[in-house]
TrEMBL record:
Keyword Transferase listed: yes
Upper classification of the organism: Bacteria, Bacillati, Actinomycetota, Actinomycetes, Micrococcales
Record's protein name: GCN5-related N-acetyltransferase
Annotated Pfam families: Acetyltransf_3 (PF13302)
Keyword Iron: no
Family: Belongs to the acetyltransferase family. RimJ subfamily.
Superkingdom per UniProt: Bacteria
Swiss-Prot/TrEMBL keywords: Acyltransferase, Transferase
Domain N-acetyltransferase: start-end pairs: 16-187
Amino acid sequence: MELAEDFWDGPPHGSVLLRPVRPRDEREWRRVRNANFAWLGPWEASSPVIPGEDQARLTFRQYVRSLDRAALNGESLPWVIEYEGRISGQLSVMNITLGSLRGASIGYWVSQEVAGRGIAPLAVAMAVDYCLFERHLHRIEINVRPENHASLRVVEKLGFRDEGIRERYLHINGRWADHRTFALTREDIPLGLLHQLRTRATPL
């Protein structure tokens, strides 16, 4: 599934695309990740060391296969964020749950060189609308470290509801870290989040 949105005419937003991660992305993906090591490091998800658990690192091809497998199983929607034809970040819809919840969570990052241009809010809005109106989910949440001011600006600009602190919620950069949970349900945005962005009085 590829999602394109071009309703802003030119700079500073240009064209944003969400598309699956592909094996041939390895060189560009690694270049972006390496260039943003210090920028992304404090917010990186990590896994606690558990005796007896396999801690082997995946090759990029194995990583892509694992993403594809989770997507085929209906567990997640993993995308890269392209801006003006270049990989500029990544967005994943995770923990997709059907039944009486019909919810999921979203995680994302963008490179430092494009931060502040409205790309992350636009990518999140595209993903939210797809999940709520195409996949018929009901609730989307985003969990943000209280110190991550850039990500806090994204959820605030998009009107996500602040549902409070979850203590030691996720393992981040080597330790269990508190997160603030933000959420939207379909009733909050009956015309969609992209429509809400289009009709804002001021740009992102």
